[in-house]
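Lecture 7 notes: from sequence to structure.
We start with the chain below.
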Amino acid sequence: MEDLTAGGFLGGRGFYGKDGRGGIFSWVFSTDHKRIGLLYLGSVLSLFSLGVTIGFLMRLELITRGPTVMGPQTYNSLFTLHGVVMLFLFLIPAILFIAIFRYGPMFGLQLAFKTYNMKQGIFGSPWIGFDHFQRLFSYYRFGEIFLNTVILAVYKLAAAFPFLQRQNFISRVIGTLYGASP
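Predicted structure tokens for the same chain:
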């Protein structure tokens, strides 16, 4: 098997190798989707830790009556800052991360119905209909592969079932305590 990093696919530079630029510039100005994803993840985790730290300081202030660590104006400012950091700087980039790196690649799902030509792109490639699916279903090991997929899905449901029941139980208890019907 060909080594993909030794002069092969990546031209000997590897995933974390230099691409003409060095240092922090190779990360900040990168167009590699893996690096962009890692930068997104790093920024989301660092902003989450900032929000948690601000929340911890607010809880530290509420331990006893009266000002302990900060005054009332500082507490109100930190309360607002905590909301801004957690909503706009943590939650929205996390949702964008999921949208870009989980749902964005689904755009290429239409390739299953096309004979893809790199020069013509996704929109210019000719449609072939269900030819790829006919080839898949006529594959001699299709039954075995399909059965394995179904078995794994059943195992996944069996493993998640107790947790789903527990969640239903908790919602019934809360509904009973607060007088709402489940």
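Points to note: The two ends are 58 Å apart (CA to CA). Confidence is low (pLDDT under 50) at residues 1-10.
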